[in-house]
Amino acid sequence: MTKKRIAILGSTGSIGVQALDVIAQHPDKYEVETLTAHRNVSLLAQQAIRFQPNAVAIADDAKYGELKSLLAGHPIKVYAGSKAICEVAQLPGADVVISSLVGIAGLKPTICAVEAKKQVALANKETLVVAGDLISRLAQKSGAAIIPVDSEHSAVFQCLMGECSPVEKIYLTASGGPFLRASADELRCATVEQALKHPRWSMGAKVTIDSASMMNKGFEVIEARWLFDLKPEQVEVLVHPQSVVHSMVQFADGCIKAQLGAPDMRIPIGYALSFPERLRLNVSRFCFAENPTLTFQKPDTEKFRCLALAYEALRMGGNAACAVNAANEVAVDAFLHGKIGFQDIAKLVELGLQKNSFIAQPTLEDYIETDSRVRRMVESCK
Ligand code: MG
What we know:
The chain has helices spanning 14-25, 41-51, 64-70, 82-90, 107-115, 125-142, 151-160, 184-188, 192-195, 205-213, 215-228, 266-274, 305-316, 320-336, 344-354, 364-381; strands at 4-9, 30-37, 55-58, 77-80, 96-99, 119-122, 146-148, 167-174, 235-239, 245-251, 256-260. By secondary structure, it is an alpha/beta fold.
């Protein structure tokens, strides 16, 4: 059997590391073609020495020399710079490109992979949040398959297998994050440490803070709209603290399909790599008898304003979600550096949305311009 060759954009992040773990469990099925990282040279070099890809790329130019010398003696091509990340996303050697970069940095490389007609395992949700219409159009044109890696969207994708009737609605489940039961006062005083303590999932810092504010779920609503061609009112969020039901699809006959399993990102990553087959995975199994209670409730959008703002941006369309994403990236960074309070994140996101100059049908350049304009504006207000 020929092995699938995998390129991982963002291999040193949480998704990248877990993807390599899945690949290491199936050396008979997968080979690593390319690894890229933002600036974590030492981990990138370690990964490259272990998995022996054809090429590695580091986005930060200044780290080129260090990476080159760490890989001296290995037959691995070394590239640097953000352009190189886009170039390796298109190299003919890769069958599947895992796009697991964080934030808007993932946009251009993902577009490159889509244009090169790769099977794209998409973990960079900001790509669809910022420019969902553009990506969908490009994928349709090139014939690239986009397989979601986000656990909720992987769940919906799996529920849709074998179905040919239209979807009535989907339920995206949310753990509720560490502040599910926090009071308004507790939220105002929430520390970085508290926000980073996610009760169920192990993820990178940015997405963990987004989970605490429920901005992450808001982004996932937008992501679902583009992945599954739904209207905003067809996407409902349900808080499900046990994180066992990863999402559900409801059809015209009232039937609901759900996908369940242990909260472990290696399951959706594995599925995106092996689709339409399934891999044998060494992850824990969910036990119904030991966890007899699964609960569901509506989210509190007064407390978690970010979720309401994401729906608002989705209804507005155009570059509104791009503005929300830019404002949120600046706000989360400021919160992580102790410069603003937790509830200021939603305030800055709202400001970014209000002050955005609306463009109904943005081009890629418009998105990039919106992103930098909103960032500058929010930077000056924080
Ligand atoms: Mg998710």
